[in-house]
Amino acid sequence: MAQSIENHGIVGNLRTAALIGLDGAVDFLCWPRFDSPSIFASLLDDERGGSFELTAVLDDARQRQLYLPDTNVLLTRFLSPDGVAEISDFMSIGDLDAGSRLVRRIKAVRGSIHFRMRCRPRFDYARLDPEICVKQADTVIFTGGDGLALRLRASVPVDISQGAALSEFDLAAGESASFILEDASHGQDSISADPGYVSAAFKETSDYWRHWVRGSTYVAAGVK
Q1: I need a surface site. Which of 20, 74, 206, 217 has the fewest CB within 10 A?
Q2: What is the tens place of the pLDDT at every residue in 76-107?
Q3: What is the pTM of this model?
């Protein structure tokens, strides 16, 4: 079941934004612009809306969300006596090809942890199911109406079933896995194929937002 609206963080790239729940699921995202139809809308229809789920399988886990200081990089933490996991979510800014990308990196902070991922886009406000998913090496391609095609690039093995990309994997403490959702029109050899892309995009995006914050003149009420 999708989280209620107040249990969501938001990440964006100035062209669109994604709502991400405390459970690690992307519950709403219009692609590639704010005024485009949705590709994920489980916030409105949990059964048909589509979502991008990423979660740590931990008993009695508490979830917490916060932003990396002075950035729009969202951290979702899973806290349990058996282990601690963290998702870093951001939409890249500054890519040389000006592509729109949602980058998701999940890490086992403490303990050996089992994770699950399911990416199930539903195009045009869930009026169009994606065409058959085409698996190419470490990627899955989702195609829909009006020529829209999305690529999911993963650092762990991915299977496909009923219009969704699925993965279950284990990470030891300190290990991480990443998932990149992007416009497939940039080609299989887009900049996100570089093994160092996720780390470089994380730094580029964080630096952008920190530079933006430094230009702000906002002062909170009561603060001098």
Answers
A1: 217
A2: 999 999 999 999 999 999 898 888 999 999 99
A3: 0.94
